[in-house]
Fold these 3 entries.
Entry 1:
Amino acid sequence: MLKKKNSPASMDTVIGEYTTIIGNVDSEGSLKILGKIEGDIKAGGDIYIESTSTINGNIYGSNVYVSGKINGNIIAKGILHLQAQARLYGDIEVSSIVTDEGAIFQGTCKMIELPEDEAAATSSGKSSSRLKIRHDDLDEDSTEI
């Protein structure tokens, strides 16, 4: 049985595999990136960083799905999903994180809590149990969770 990949029903903007953008990218909708971007990415919707992509800059979005390589920070109001091929070198600030086996993340993580109305707007409507760790709950001397 084939594993279904998270992909949107429709995509506002697609940046192709053989495209390089030097500069910032701003969108009110969703983005799917297959190419290379040297700059910050801001989207009002979801951001999909595919396995062929390389990003050198910060990313700001609702939900961020990563399969490619990122050198920069990520702020996601909803889910950050690091898929098996993901390589993330930077800090993250998210309300929820999912990592697949094989993903690499080097940086610090800050968990944020959204107000109820914002959390409902960014959720996908699926109910699942996720481990949520608040930064305040961790012991500074603790190495295990």
Entry 2:
Amino acid sequence: MKNLVRVFFLCLCLTIIGLLSDTLSAQQGAGAQPASAPGVSAVFQEAEPALRRESSVPPKLPRFLPFMDEAHPIHAVVQSATTSGYSILLANALPCEGANWCLYGTVKGSTQPFKHEGKSGKTAPVLLQGGIKANFFDSECDTYCSQAYVDWKENGYYYSIGIKGPNPMRKVLLKVANSAVKP
């Protein structure tokens, strides 16, 4: 029975990936980009001023988020903004406090390195634009998939971007992280 449930969820995940891939392809083909202020994605327009005002960590906010369009918006929820860092929850529905059904991902900045609880999966060194060294943490899937993360250090600050989804997330997540790193 347990194997049957896993097969069902795997099929469901593959179907969702197929649908999301079609959406992403349509976005790229049509050049769809949400209107936004220069350098700031429309998703973060409300959050960005609060981060600059309340945190001493300069925000690194991605300008690209996959699988997002007018029919599938992503909402940035500032969970915390202090002098030592910030944490933004990305949700595909509101209200959301990080539950599996609504979590899209996270964007974080800190004066201290991050520890991803429960991450025992594959970790690989990666290179972001500008030669910035980073680490990629793969997502883990069982009943549902966890976030995959890219963590890096830039100008003395630590940054982490995570997106929830099935493997392989590396290529997509590197594109997201690179959109947050300024050339």
Entry 3:
Amino acid sequence: MLRGLIAAALAGTGLAAAQAQTAKRSVVVGHSVRRRAIVAYERGDPAAPTVLVVGVIHGTEPAGLAVIRRLRHVPLPAGTHLWLVSAANPDGLAAGTRQNAHGVDLNRNWPTAWVHNGRPWDGYYSGPRPMSEPENRAMRTFILRVRPALTIWYHQPLDVVYGSDPHVAVLRRYARLTGLPYRRLVAPRGAATRWERARFPRGAHFVVEFPAGRISAATARRHATAVLALAKGLRVTPSP
């Protein structure tokens, strides 16, 4: 009887519907060369525009993990929907290498403006062909499924927010909220954000570079707050 009264009260206040619409789950979107899982965590309201945040694509640039950890647990504003990927390059993260286990720079392997560059384990080796790497194929399939309206990829060590897409106001706002400078730079050939901007031009997809080394808890908190501020300001728009 008490359970029924509680359920009735929740329904009366609209909380039951809100709870039913709030997602909190994890999915394996694919696997690395060494068969490590690439895991995405969903939080928030699936009816809201999707925000994708990727903590690591280069294994030697792990600072973004602190932001992902915070975003997985902080209270979310109403009307926000997050997908959080800790590491799109789990092999590189485990080995402490920029590249994946094939020696490929995953941020030079996406198909938009791809060019062959270098050889395995060179700093910017692009791979033998676009999307040759299982990590990127998994992420592409996942991104096409969730269709993000906003994507942030964390890197190091340039200490800057950058991108050259038409959504410069979004990037500048993130920079203001976090205290980082903004630079209007073109993403490298074969970069993930370059592909996303071509595939989803209505959205803002950009890079945030932390300085070298570990970031403080205050910095992680500031960046998580900036992500949520941008997410809260998104509006649902019809698909192209």
